[in-house]
Amino acid sequence: MDMHTSFRSRLVAAGILFPTGVDGLWGRNGTFEAIYDGLERAITRAGLDDKAEVMRFPPAMAQKTFEKSGYMKNFPHFAGTVHCFCGDDRAHHKLMGQMERGEDWMENQQPADLVLTPAACYSVYPIVAQRGVLADDGHLVDVASYCFRHEPSLEPTRLQLFRMREYVRIGTPAQVLAFREDWMERGQAFARSLGLPFEVEVANDPFFGRAGKLMADSQRMQNLKFELLIPVNDGAGPTACLSFNYHMSYFGDTWDIRTPDGEPAQTACCAFGMERLVLALLRHHGFDLADWPAEVRDTLGLG
């Protein structure tokens, strides 16, 4: 068996993942979702004392909001749009004929003014901006959403649709940098509480095109992004399961979010890749939750 695919094969054989016929799109069983629910509880407890505002979003956002975010400038290869049938009876008859003949029927679909959410925090900034100038202590949000990135892969940790949980800090440079430093330590403590081996390294986002390499190099040089990496897939390098990101004033400038002194707000976030963390736990503790270390079960509230 190919070492790179053996973990995926074991997950499928155990009935934990269900193939859907599309690379990077999996169904999940009750064991997977029980672990996921435990992670949600544990992450909530980890940030409970911070009294963050809770925001939860669907997996799609307004096209105009998406366009203003600038995502297409940097990551056009990951974006996904929503299209729907808007025709009459005649168009419907034509569409059904095309489908029956195995022809391309997508010409009948029209944009629905929706774009699949690329990152959970993208829905936060326009809402905060509408409220006006930030308070003196800035703002903190606990946000979660399904996210989409068009990145088909057989690797079980590289999904096209996945769930992301984030703590997002908005405020002055001192406030957001202190937040990121704090959560880099808390994130590592969280991984230790799950009994997972890890390393933290400086990283970069997968920017698109020739200019993307320069942007990635700049991101690394400025230490804007760190990732907590955990070995998950057999025969492959470790997987980024948490990230700690400093956006400087990008979103503050984009959405005109201001601090009390009139300066553009800065932002940072700690992001949890939920499915990746579930898979990391299954990889290191096995598929039978009853055999997991007691302290890990207690952390996740699994009894």
Report what the structure shows.
- The chain is 39% helix and 25% strand.
- It has a single domain, classed as 2-Layer Sandwich (BirA Bifunctional Protein, domain 2).
- Helix 2 crosses helix 10 (274-285).
- It is an alpha+beta fold.
- The chain starts with a helix and ends with a helix.
- It contains eleven helices and twelve strands.
- The protein has a seven-stranded mixed beta sheet with strand order 3-7-8-12-11-10-9. Strands 4-6-5 form a three-stranded antiparallel beta sheet. Strands 1-2 form a two-stranded antiparallel sheet.
- The longest helix is centred in the middle third of the chain and has 21 residues, at 173-193.
Low-confidence stretches: none
Radius of gyration: 21 Å
Order of helices and strands: HEEHEEHHEHEHEEHEHEEHEHH
Which range best describes the helical content: under 10%, 10-25%, 25-40%, 40-55%, 55-70% or over 70%? 25-40%
Structural class: alpha+beta
Number of helical stretches of at least 4 residues: 11
Task: Specify the biggest β-sheet.
Answer: 7 strands, mixed
Q: Looking at this structure, what is the CATH superfamily?
A: Bira Bifunctional Protein, Domain 2
Query: Count of DSSP E strands?
Result: 12
Name the overall outline.
Answer: globular
Instruction: Based on the coordinates given, report the CATH architecture.
Output: 2-Layer Sandwich
Rounded mean pLDDT is 95
Q: Give the strand content.
A: 25-35%
Strand order of the largest sheet: 3-7-8-12-11-10-9
Q: Report the span from N to C terminus.
A: 35 Å
Number of domains: 1
CATH class reads Alpha Beta
Protein name: Amino acid--[acyl-carrier-protein] ligase
GO molecular function, one term: ligase activity
Keywords: Ligase
InterPro entries: aa-tRNA-synth_II/BPL/LPL
